[in-house]
Amino acid sequence: MDPFTIDPRILGDSMAVTELGLCSVRLMDDARYPWLLLLPRRSGLEQFTDLEEAESILITSEIRAAAAALRSVLPFERLNVGALGNIVRQLHIHVIGRREGDSAWPGPVWGHGLRVPRETAQNTVIVEQLRFAFGNGT
């Protein structure tokens, strides 16, 4: 079996936060939205239905943990969760906080404008806060 690797497009648009039981958690570098990605650490996964039954139960728990951590650091009103895979085929789950009036409201964030990268220092602070919220901060 091939080792788990992260698609270069995901690596280029996000930064590592933590490792959960099944997933690597990454913060999307887009200042417009509170946004995490969960990537199951198994090679070859493309569809949510590629997960084994026990993994699909675990990932649901990890989505809930990611949403709670995200909400504690970057508050939001609505939670959007999705796994599209239309551009990046590697299975990854989007956990996105939304606010009424955000730049894509009320539509989906995908395909709406260009990503707005944060300052490096701001990302560093957010990642550390998220690590603490997940229970593995310094």
UniProtKB/TrEMBL annotation:
Residues 36-105 form the HIT domain. GO terms for molecular function: hydrolase activity. It comes from Kaistia soli DSM 19436. It comes from the Bacteria. PROSITE patterns: HIT_2 (PS51084). Pfam families: HIT. This is Diadenosine tetraphosphate (Ap4A) hydrolase. InterPro entries: HIT-like, HIT-like_sf, HIT_Hint. Keywords: Hydrolase.
